[in-house]
Amino acid sequence: MRTSATGSNLNPPQDGEGDRRRSRWWRGPLKLSASLQASSTALRAVPLPVPGRISGFTLLELLVVLAIIGMMSAAVILAIPDPRGSLTSEAERFAARANAAQERAILEARPLALRIDAAGYAFDRREQAGWQPLADRPFERQSWTEGTSAAGPVRIVFDSTGLAEPAALTLQREQERVTVDFGHDGSIRVRA
Predict the structure, then answer these.
(1) pTM (2 decimals)?
(2) 166: nearest Cα among 149, 176, 148, 179
(3) Are 155 and 161 in contact (CB under 8 A)?
(4) What angle do CA 139, 140, 145 make, to 5 degrees?
(5) Parallel, antiparallel or unpaired: strands 130-133 and 120-127
(6) Half-sphere exposure for 71 (CA within 13 Å, toward CB)
(7) Phi/psi of residue 165, nearest 5 degrees
(8) pLDDT tens digits, residue range 23-37?
(9) Gap between the Cα atoms of 70 and 189, Å rounded
(10) pLDDT in tens, 105-160
(11) How far out from the chain centre does Cα 77 lie?
């Protein structure tokens, strides 16, 4: 005779067995386990679609989603750096090239000039025929990035000892200003 885990007889009733045994076999066990009761309750709690009713999102749900997307896109835009780079980094690149020209003037024992205009800057070397532009790296002509302007001396000359007349070159982009100072002792400093 087969029995279930609860001890119920799983065999169908034979002829001559009582009505009580027969009715229990057809109805199954008398008590459901707790997990079966919970799942059957959850299944009954699911609402059925009502005919004629259109399902979709409410206006409030759509507005909340649009507000979240707007805040996330604003955060991304604020986190993206300026494609032109910072004005301070441009001034530091300029100062590094000016320092390289100063060192080259000392090594070659001949004057070098830094020529500055509205479009950018270039380097010249003093030859017997006059000032000749340098074309080798890092002394080729450099352009200011878009929106950058320079105010200050038009030419800074480094003599064969690396010294130059004291000068200050101011770079400006929109409301930001950075100054490159050429000291009487040959120092080149960037001031934000």
Answers:
(1) 0.57
(2) 179
(3) no
(4) 105
(5) antiparallel
(6) 5
(7) -65, 140
(8) 554 555 555 555 555
(9) 43
(10) 999 999 999 999 888 999 999 888 888 888 888 889 999 888 888 888 889 999 98
(11) 9
Phi, psi of 162 (to 5 degrees): 90, 0
Alpha helices for the chain (secondary structure H): 19-27, 34-45, 59-79, 87-108
Q: With pLDDT > 90 as the criterion, what percentage of the chain qualifies?
A: 31
Cα–chain-centroid distance for residue 24?
70
Q: Which residues pair with 130 in a beta bridge?
A: 127
> What values do phi and psi take at 108, rounded to 5?
-90, -10
Quote the CA–CA distance of 135 and 93 in Å, as a whole number.
Answer: 17
Local structure of residue 138 (DSSP, 8 states): T
Q: How far apart are the first and last CA of the chain?
A: 95
**What DSSP state is assigned to residue 147?**
T
Name the amino acid, one letter, at 65: V
- Distance from C-alpha of 99 to C-alpha of 91, rounded to nearest angstrom: 12
Residue that has been written with the tokens 């007349």 in this structure: 165
